[in-house]
Write a sequence for this structure.
């Protein structure tokens, strides 16, 4: 047995792989690629808390109850039928889209999707066995989410049903957002959506990655998304995680930006029992700008972990990052944000802040902002705060007649305003803000005792 | 309307108020003057119910009810309004949303219907003119980035909107230039009525030229050491606070 | 600039002005680490059995830890594995019997201290500011000044070995109570082979009337220094303690693995200041001290306070996190640090503030200056335990970069498990201001002086925490360490 896989609870997945692969019926080339990834996963194993990067997030709960490997079968007709209403609801929420695609357990579902007709500048291709024409791997595939180094990238590569390739064509300007819905079916299994996104030169687009599960569904989702932005491309990307409280989601999002490109990523983590967002951004050419905004709101026993790594690989690149967390009841938040400035990457401007509100005695947060700087002509700063609602502000509001609950709700709302207001497109902003407020209203009343 | 009897109070463990008796009837304006550290602001904070202060002795009766037993928001709904010396900045919370919530909380308490957005805006616009407040302040976050004068105007605007029964002005004149002071004073004066009482707390007599009180009390070391008519202000202006100790 | 360059060159060559070797006969054990060596050290010091047993337990644990995990790998430092068998674990000036007073100290040794600028003779004559000094030479404490004056107040200030003999009950009670022998690899090694150090006990209600001070110096070649410091401030007591370090220039790396434990009971306060300028190695990174030190204070009592101030300019590698365990309600922990690295130096330093008691408060101010090809990291943990109601922390970590080959890194860890706590952390990293330098040049300052005053300004919040006598020395040290970083 290989080192690292000894006593590895993920052994069951490795055992189940041949059956999964047989169902898919991939090309030998693709099959070999999956096997390499699987071997790498066997070597790496599930990360333990002894790793610095996983210090605050323990996957032992997974080990106790390993979700079985995926079957490889596309969703059945009955499931598609059942999902219809939920999908329609979510589509309504976001409104008109220039492209809307639905993936159930990582499988593309044409019957639930609306793809653009004719030349619209955006296209979605799937690399999967059943595609009519064999497509070569997209450029850069696997370079950012390395199956050799990262266990979950390896797992994803082995078990993804297909690679979804989204491309914003050169110079295209989309007025309406692209809406990708990833629904977990609640079959209790592992599922591995895989997405590869390219923003060609001077393209401009808004993208929503909407992660959902059927009500009360139980799943382990290991998603991988790679985003490449070419020269002067701009992408405004909203990631919304609203899975059930029985879902574990390990989301790996990796980006690389070309010259003078602009990338904005808003991550709203509202649902899920355990969510780990691994966000790596490489500013690979001059003038690239990155804007990261994140909000995590935890209730019950939720464990929400955001890990960001901003890599200033070239001079004259800029990044701004704000993450805010609200933790109530027994929820736990984790933030680790690294700003890395490589040697000779001069003229870097980078800021990062992480602010947390603890609303109940059982809530906790670990925050680790980090600066790793190997060049001297830089302006970098980070700040982190953890606290409760401002007493002074609470009193002010109450002295104007607001009840304690109203005052708390108002202040909590004020706390998240900065993130919500930054969301793109008016309709999206109000739809997403509504979701956030819905979640907040559930946090507003618990455990007033001892916190007044 | 307000009846304070033998009030003793501490901030944390430090005794600040050492026996105050004060009676303010409806329609009256009382001023409390005194040097820094005499307990003026502590008194206003206790009336509004700020946490961190404890009343060790005495009682406060407001409109026939025990004021000290009420939560801060209940006091506000019953008509007690404190114009803060240092209004807090609350980023992310829109001023107009806050004011509407506040107005409606108090209306509901008084058995009135809530105002809808349109009615509220109309009401607001009228009151804002009175305090010469630019419209954009309404769309900004509460007090965030407001100048000292704008904050104080915002306080008076709230007072006009909420129409309280007892107005407490805590050093509302501090940090205001003469024009702003006049605007603020005009706002306050417009609320003068036989049903309404006011307690004006100030270090300087300047404000009292604009808001003319019926009675003036001088507070020193937690006690009222002198009370008199408006002529007392002039006397203080002339002699400063130094003579108070000797008078005792 | 030409004449300045010449000056700089000269200055750069005499970089480490404390790099002399004292010619004193030393009683030194041959290199090697074994049970026998530990027994020998213990026997030389005529220690009681319980202490020997403690050392042996630590040695066993050290071996286990080394075998299991090797050296701690999490810090942002890089060095070849240490050969623990190549180090001599005991070196004492070949002195005679017990030293009764300064007169009996080897005159060569006294000259050494004079060179260090801590003339013991001078100290005795000083009528103004009094500093009681305990000097640790290699591993052995050689003299303690002002002892009799301190004794009048019931203050115990002596070498650690002496304290083991004269106050065994105190040592036994407190040794390892803050830093258990198994805490980390280097603490473990220290517990096994420590040879001497300083002990101070301030009795109830006594404010120590003078600064207590220890100077550490590694002299012999191939030796490690493993001193142990223990300071106990009883209820209501207060003390300010200074620690200074130097070592001669040698081209092999020498290991310094000290342990410092502080204990503050109810209402007690301890201020611990360090100016560390161990030999940092040469421009190419040859030689220098590995400074792997465990310093920790326990605020056991209510309203107790422990304050660490450090100015770190020396050592090839510094690995050091002076920490506070805030157990008592309303206790206060502080950490003020200036760390300057130049040439090939590496430093991974910071603090831990563990909030356990209610309304505990901690402040962290860390200033890092990186020059040359050095790498510097701030690493700090703020932990608010579930019971630490109303705990507060404020941390500020600023890094200044001089030169484009160095690195500055900030790794704070904030773990909050109580919603009534307030924790704030801020950090900035930037280049030294060109505008500021130009302004100074335009006013006639040399570039060297300009940088020096800017750096001193950058560190002001920390330097002002130092006792007066130390502040001047610290400023000088910063200037010396900056030399060669310009141009």
């Amino acid at each position: 047995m290989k080192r690292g896989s000894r006593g590895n609870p993920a052994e069951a997945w490795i055992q189940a792989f041949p059956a999964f692969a047989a169902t898919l019926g991939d090309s030998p080339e693709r099959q070999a690629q999956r096997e390499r990834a699987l071997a790498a996963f066997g070597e790496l194993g599930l990360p333990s808390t002894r790793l610095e990067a996983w210090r605050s997030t323990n996957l032992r709960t997974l080990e106790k109850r390993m979700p079985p490997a995926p079957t490889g079968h596309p969703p059945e007709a009955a499931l598609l039928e059942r999902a219809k209403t939920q999908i329609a609801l979510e589509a309504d929420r976001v409104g008109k889209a220039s492209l809307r695609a639905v993936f159930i357990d990582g499988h593309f579902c044409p019957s639930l999707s609306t793809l653009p007709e004719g030349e619209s500048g955006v296209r979605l291709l799937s690399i999967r066995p059943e595609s009519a024409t064999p497509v070569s791997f997209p450029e850069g595939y696997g370079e950012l989410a390395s199956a050799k180094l990262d266990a979950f990238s390896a797992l994803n590569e082995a078990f993804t049903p297909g690679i979804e390739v989204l491309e914003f064509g050169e110079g295209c300007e989309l007025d309406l957002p692209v809406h990708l819905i990833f629904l977990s079916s609640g079959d209790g299994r592992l599922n591995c959506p895989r997405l590869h996104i390219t923003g060609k030169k001077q393209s401009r687009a808004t993208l929503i990655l909407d992660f959902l599960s059927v009500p009360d569904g139980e799943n382990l989702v290991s998603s991988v998304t790679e985003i490449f932005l070419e020269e002067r491309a701009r992408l405004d990307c909203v990631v919304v995680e609203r899975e059930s409280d029985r879902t574990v989601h390990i989301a790996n999002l990796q980006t690389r930006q070309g010259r003078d490109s602009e990338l904005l990523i808003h991550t709203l983590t509202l649902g899920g029992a355990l969510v780990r967002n691994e966000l790596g951004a490489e500013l690979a050419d001059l003038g690239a700008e990155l804007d990261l905004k994140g909000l995590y709101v935890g209730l019950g026993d939720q464990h929400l972990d955001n890990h960001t790594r901003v890599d200033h690989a070239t001079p004259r690149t800029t990044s701004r990052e704000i993450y805010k967390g609200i933790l109530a009841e027994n929820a736990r938040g984790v933030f680790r944000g690294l700003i890395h400035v490589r040697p000779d990457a001069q003229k870097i401007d980078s800021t990062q802040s992480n602010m947390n509100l603890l609303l109940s005695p059982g809530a906790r947060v670990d925050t680790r902002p980090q600066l790793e700087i190997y060049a001297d002509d830089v302006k970098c700063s980070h700040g982190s705060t953890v606290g409760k609602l401002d007493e002074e502000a609470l009193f002010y509001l109450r002295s104007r007649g607001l009840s304690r609950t109203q005052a708390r709700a108002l202040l909590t709302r004020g706390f998240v305003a900065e993130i919500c207001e930054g969301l793109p497109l008016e309709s999206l902003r109000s739809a997403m803000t509504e979701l956030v407020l819905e979640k907040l209203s559930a946090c507003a009343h618990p455990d007033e005792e001892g916190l007044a | 309307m307000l009846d304070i009897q033998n009030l003793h109070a501490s901030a944390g463990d430090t005794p600040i108020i050492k026996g105050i008796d004060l009676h303010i009837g409806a329609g009256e304006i009382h001023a409390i003057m005194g040097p820094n550290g005499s307990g003026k602001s502590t008194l206003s904070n206790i009336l509004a119910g700020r946490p961190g202060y404890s009343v060790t002795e005495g009682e406060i009766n407001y409109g026939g009810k025990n004021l000290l037993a009420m939560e801060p928001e209940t006091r506000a709904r019953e008509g007690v309004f404190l114009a803060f010396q240092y209004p807090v900045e609350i980023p992310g919370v829109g001023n107009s949303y806050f004011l509407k919530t506040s107005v409606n909380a108090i209306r509901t308490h008084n058995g009135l219907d809530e105002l809808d957005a349109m009615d509220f805006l109309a009401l607001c616009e009228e009151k804002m003119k009175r305090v010469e407040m630019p419209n954009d302040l309404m769309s900004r976050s509460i007090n965030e980035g407001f100048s000292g004068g704008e904050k104080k105007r915002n306080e008076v605007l709230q007072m006009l909107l909420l129409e309280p029964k007892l107005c407490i002005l805590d050093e509302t004149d501090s940090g205001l230039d003469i024009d702003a002071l006049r605007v603020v004073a005009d706002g306050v004066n417009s609320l003068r009525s036989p049903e309404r009482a006011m307690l004006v707390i100030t270090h300087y007599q300047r404000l009292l030229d604009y808001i003319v009180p019926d009675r003036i009390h001088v507070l020193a070391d937690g006690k009222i050491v002198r009370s008199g008519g408006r002529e007392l202000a002039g006397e203080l202006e002339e002699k400063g606070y130094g003579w108070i100790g000797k008078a005792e | 600039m030409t004449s300045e360059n010449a000056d700089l060159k000269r200055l750069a060559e005499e970089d480490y002005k404390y790099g002399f070797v004292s010619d004193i006969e030393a009683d030194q054990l041959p290199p090697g680490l074994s049970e026998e060596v530990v027994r020998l050290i213990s026997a030389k010091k005529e220690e009681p059995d319980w202490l020997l047993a403690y050392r042996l337990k630590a040695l066993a644990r050290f071996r286990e830890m080394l075998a299991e995990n090797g050296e701690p790998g999490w810090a942002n430092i890089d060095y070849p594995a240490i050969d623990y068998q190549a180090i001599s674990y005991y070196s004492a000036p070949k002195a005679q019997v017990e030293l009764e007073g300064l007169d009996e100290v080897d005159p060569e040794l006294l000259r050494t201290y004079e060179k260090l600028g801590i003339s013991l003779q001078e100290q005795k004559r000083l009528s103004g500011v009094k500093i009681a000094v305990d000097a640790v030479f290699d591993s052995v404490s050689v003299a303690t000044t002002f002892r009799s004056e301190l004794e009048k107040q019931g203050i115990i200030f002596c070498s650690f070995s002496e304290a083991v003999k004269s106050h065994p009950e105190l040592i036994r009670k407190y040794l390892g109570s803050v830093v258990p022998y198994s805490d980390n690899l280097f603490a473990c090694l220290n517990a096994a082979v420590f040879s001497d150090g300083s002990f101070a006990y301030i009795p109830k209600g006594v404010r120590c009337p003078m600064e207590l001070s220890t100077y550490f110096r590694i002299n012999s070649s191939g030796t490690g220094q493993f001193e142990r410091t223990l300071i106990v401030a009883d209820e209501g007591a207060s003390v300010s303690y200074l620690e200074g370090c130097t070592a001669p220039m040698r081209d092999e790396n020498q290991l310094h693995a000290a342990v410092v434990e502080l204990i503050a009971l109810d209402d007690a306060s301890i201020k611990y200041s360090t100016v560390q300028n161990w030999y940092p190695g040469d421009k190419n990174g040859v030689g220098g001290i590995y400074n792997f030190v465990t310093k920790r204070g326990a605020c056991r009592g209510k309203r107790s306070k422990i304050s660490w101030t450090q100015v770190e300019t020396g050592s090839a590698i510094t690995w050091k996190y002076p920490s506070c365990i805030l157990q008592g309600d309303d206790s206060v922990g502080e950490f003020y640090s200036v760390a300057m690295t130049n040439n090939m130096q590496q430093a991974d330093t910071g603090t831990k503030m563990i909030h356990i008691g209610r309304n505990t408060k901690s402040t962290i101010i860390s200033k890092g200056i990186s020059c040359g090809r050095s790498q510097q990291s701030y690493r700090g943990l703020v932990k608010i335990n579930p019971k630490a109601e109303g705990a507060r922390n404020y941390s500020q970590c600023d890094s200044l970069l001089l030169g484009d080959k160095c690195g500055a890194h900030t790794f704070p860890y904030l773990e909050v498990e109580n919603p009534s706590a307030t924790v704030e952390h801020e950090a900035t990293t930037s280049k030294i201001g060109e505008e500021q330098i130009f302004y100074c040049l335009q006013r006639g300052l040399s570039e060297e002086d300009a940088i020096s005053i800017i750096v001193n300004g950058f560190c002001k919040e920390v330097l002002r925490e130092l006792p007066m006598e130390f502040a001047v020395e610290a400023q000088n040290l910063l200037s010396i360490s900056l030399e060669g970083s310009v141009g």
Observations:
- Chain B has nine helices and twelve strands.
- Residues 32-39+71-247 of chain B form a domain with the Rossmann fold fold (CATH 3.40.50.300).
